[in-house]
Design goal:
BirA Bifunctional Protein, domain 2, 25% strand, Rossmann fold, binds adenosine-5'-triphosphate, 503 residues, Herpes Virus-1, ligase, 3 domains, 40% helix, globular, seven-stranded mixed beta sheet, 23 strands, 17 helices, single chain, alpha+beta, five-stranded mixed beta sheet
């Protein structure tokens, strides 16, 4: 697993997807730059989300709010008081952990034991294996499940009651029951605020303390009434936004999974109080469908319903994805009630109410939120797509099986040889295709090598111009995943590629 993840990181660098930030100065921890291919993949993911959320829903519109916001925003949102991570230091290894993440890692070990039992039983029972029944009845597995649930419940309770001493105790107990760090020597758990501060204004006495936004959502809440009125929006309606957010993450590891500067894609859906359960279920389902539409395997997703709820939520679930280091949160779906708008009303003294023209009542709407990290989605797509395949002749190929709709380059065009007018024809094809797609030209090395390069790059199609092309205006088009080749007319290329890559 660790090796798989290392391969993902090095492939991302080698093929121009993700670089460490400021690498020539030895990098900046948990900050990354998107390179020439990465920026295209990221844009395509963002567009795929935007199309599904904004373009296809006539009651959802987008905004692009500023990163800087009035500082009172973060008092109203609760971030000044409550945006804290519980930290614990291991005195022996001098390593710092997020206490809740550490507990979840212990639980992950228990879950791995369950998976092992399941795999063993599946092998033993073959076709007759009923996983659901096994999970419900096997005594050992049931015990593991109960253990995991009770640990998470206790963690939730302790954090909610701000009983940090109990969180420490829990970690000490877990370390004895299920040794992981090899140490019993922990500091107390401390809370640490995750917001980055900065100053607005030139002179020291007039400068205003600002924060870099730790989430994009608040830009939507403070604009709720402006959008509702100018767009004449009727409840239920949504506002969507993508943009940078900043968190001074303490345990920043796992590549672009947890960054200090990252991008979110959020949508707040404004609804009538009392309808939140129905919309919560609906958005859970809608968002899961969006993920599955990319074809990355149903078995790689699961819901995780929160027992421990944030101060603003009355229900919350994560969509978890199977990353190279296990199932982890990819997207959150939160029923936020009227916490945000109500709180902004209080702090600003401005009414943030919706007037229902039918019932002639005014009320503060409830909010249903979907929030996904663009970088985390990038990692999910990239890691899931990277494969090492053995071919019929025994050799191996590295192939990045990106969903075609997301691939940075849609087609590469090759002249079979660098003479006889073939490069000119290849360039003509590029001239024609480049108005519709990102395409590239490659004439270096044997065609087989060029195929391998594009496989590793994630390009879904390779188009080869050969001598026959000069006679009948046909080319071969080779499909990345099946490696099949077919002869098609140059005039049909656009249609074939559109069919495969259009959103
Ligand atoms: P986690 O528990 O992993 O820290 P969170 O519950 O704090 O995440 P939210 O505040 O709900 O996350 O943010 C919504 C989404 O934003 C997450 O599902 C994740 O995809 C993304 N996200 C949050 N923090 C980061 C980060 N530091 N780096 C990259 N993506 C992030």
């Amino acid at each position: 697993q660790e090796d798989d993840f290392k391969r993902v990181i090095s492939h991302a660098k080698e093929y121009g997807y993700v670089f460490q930030s400021s690498e020539i100065y030895d990098g900046l921890s948990a900050v990354y730059d998107y390179a020439q291919n990465g920026v295209e993949l990221k844009k395509n993911i963002r567009d795929y989300w935007w199309k599904a959320m904004v373009q296809l829903n006539d009651n959802i519109v987008g905004i692009d709010a500023a990163i800087f916001m009035h500082p009172t925003t973060w008092k109203a949102s609760g971030h000044v008081d409550a945006f804290n991570d519980p930290l614990i230091d291991n005195k022996d290894s001098k390593k710092r952990y997020r206490a809740d993440v550490l507990v979840e890692d212990y639980v992950g070990k228990i879950e791995a034991k369950i998976e092992k039992e399941v795999a063993k039983a599946a092998k033993r029972f073959g076709d007759k294996f009923d996983k659901a029944q096994f999970l419900a009845t096997n005594p050992r597995v049931v015990e593991y499940q109960e253990q995991a649930t009770s640990i998470l419940k206790r963690l939730g309770r302790s954090l909610e009651n701000e009983d940090l001493a109990d969180v420490k105790k829990l970690i000490e107990e877990l370390e004895i029951a299920c040794p992981m760090s090899g140490s019993k020597n922990w500091t107390d758990v401390k809370q640490f605020n995750l917001m980055f501060g900065t100053k607005l204004g030139a002179s020291a006495e007039n400068a205003m303390d600002l924060y870099l936004r730790p989430e994009t959502a608040q830009g939507i809440f403070v604009n709720f009434l402006n959008v509702q009125k100018t767009g004449r929006m009727k409840i239920p309606f949504g506002i969507a936004q993508t943009g940078k957010a900043f968190r001074n993450e303490i345990v920043a590891r796992q590549f672009i999974f947890r960054m200090r500067e990252f991008e979110q894609m959020e949508m707040q859906f404004f609804i009538k109080p009392g309808t939140q359960q129905e919309w919560y279920e609906k958005w859970k389902e809608t968002r899961m469908k969006w993920h599955l539409s990319l074809g990355m395997g149903e078995e790689n997703y699961r819901f995780h319903d929160h027992e421990k709820l944030a101060h603003y939520a009355d229900a919350a679930a994560d969509i978890e994805f199977r990353f190279p280091f296990g199932f982890k949160e990819l997207e959150g779906i939160h029923s936020r009630t009227d916490f945000d708008l109500g709180s902004h009303e209080k702090f600003s003294g401005k009414k943030l109410q919706y007037f229902d023209p039918e019932t002639r009542e005014s009320y503060v709407p409830y909010v249903l939120e979907t929030s996904i990290g663009l970088d985390r989605m990038f990692l999910a797509v990239f890691a899931n797509s990277l494969r090492e395949e053995q071919l019929e002749n025994g050799s191996f190929r590295t192939v990045l099986k990106l969903p075609a709709v997301l691939a940075p380059t849609k087609a590469a065009v090759f002249p079979l040889v660098k003479k006889d007018g073939l490069p000119e024809v290849a360039h003509q094809i590029i001239e024609d295709l480049k108005w519709d797609f990102n395409v590239l030209y490659d004439e270096k090395d044997a065609v087989g090598r060029r195929y391998r390069r594009q496989d590793a790059n994630g390009t879904p199609f390779c188009i080869t111009v050969d001598h026959q092309t000069l006679e009948d205006n046909t080319v071969t088009i080779r499909h990345r995943d099946s490696m099949e080749q077919e002869r098609v007319a140059i005039a049909d290329l656009k249609g074939i590629i559109h069919k495969a890559v259009d959103m």
